[in-house]
Amino acid sequence: MSRTDRVEGTSIHRPPSIDRMANWPALAPLIDKVGRAPVVDALRAWAEARRGHADVGDAAACARWCEEKLASLAHPSQRRVFNLTGTVLHTNLGRALLAEEAIEAAVAAMRTPTTLEYDLADGGRGERDDHIAPWLCRLTGAEAATAVNNNAGAVLLALAALAAGREVIVSRGELIEIGGAFRIPDIMARAGCRLVEVGTTNRTHLKDYAAAIGPDTAAIMKVHPSNYAVQGFTSSVPAAELVPLAHEKGLPVIEDLGSGTLVDLETWGLPHEPTAREAVAAGIDVVTFSGDKLLGGPQAGLLVGKRSCIERIAKNPLKRALRLDKVRLAGLEATLRLYAAPERLVMRLPTIRTLARPAAEIHAQAERLLPAFAQVLGAAWQAGIRPVRGQIGSGALPVDLLPSFALTAKGRGLNGLAAALRALPIPVIGRIEDDTLLLDLRTLDDEAAFVAQLDRLAP
Ligand SMILES: *Cc1c(COP(=O)(O)O)cnc(C)c1O
User: Fold this and answer.
1) pTM (two decimals)
2) Which CATH code is given to the segment(s) 100-346?
3) Is the CB–ligand 1 distance for residue 254 below 6 Å?
4) What's the topology of domain 82-90+356-456?
């Protein structure tokens, strides 16, 4: 209890000393959870805020107040969410979900020392790339491979290693910007290369490239347009034509595939997306692509291609700055290993499993969920099911194309409903389209967890 002192004739409640408060048993669990220093700071704030109030010495009230104040410290900032946006590989929601095999491999690598750069045969130094390069070569047909932090890093490194201080020719139709400030001209400048633009936005011809080649040319670069499509009167030069021209002049061709994939998506009824193997077979010298887009692994930038180019890339000092750690290498290796049995990917790799999910199965799920969803929304909302089109996301195939089904809610105060969904214990992220809230169910795998928290939505 607080001491009551007489000061200038009035009675005020003075807080106990911070030290004494910090030893209150009521505060012990919080100190255990977040550490002593933040709690001491919170106690100072409490003493300041409650000075003169009767409860300033109330340990239980103080503990509750401090707990609330420090709530953000007690809970992780990065939280699990339900991605029901309709975009499977959602960059803001963390892109690919890893396969169980990859998760286990990553966790195991976290716990113990590993042979990251150690050769058990002779007890000498090993190469970290050796854990994934053989897999990448096998899966793409390339002579050599290496990996870095992400695909933006892979592009930067390839340009810096092969063309710093010199010119790189790129079609104007491929001078793209990807979300999150990845712009080809900027990356080119950072890599120390001079960009030489050829052709026009919609059409670039082989003769445009040929005319631009000069004594200072170091490479020709192709970029997958990823998040946009040029339609109508268009023309670009396929690798099969560009490569002979470049090689005749002794120049390497670098291709940024963006999402890139190791398997033909048509196997699962999806539109064709360029594979790394096709690029390698067309003679591209360095192919770069992401680890956490269609490949379905951890964040990484993969570089595959000709041995001479990959060796120069691996020796560049930037490689050291952009290299992968043992955890992601373990996850990546385990993911690549799954590709040895492509026919089983649909069961074992969440990205492929989600993309290949039949619309009929999603529809059945929507029908299962609708009654509970409609009930918690109550009479003020019109709940229903609607056929929708989702996206792969992360720059693959920009046009809406994944036939799916969404739970829908129509009514007044859509933004409020969206906010209430985001405030659930596992926040639910949907999208709003023509005055309707849509929850695309293609990406809902943990149906039980979704249903278990629905009750909390009730007004
Ligand atoms: C996504 C993408 C990148 C960036 O890849 P990150 O792995 O996110 O760094 C670069 N180029 C293209 C064409 C892309 O689609």
Assistant:
1) 0.91
2) 3.40.640.10
3) no
4) Aspartate Aminotransferase, domain 1 (3.90.1150)
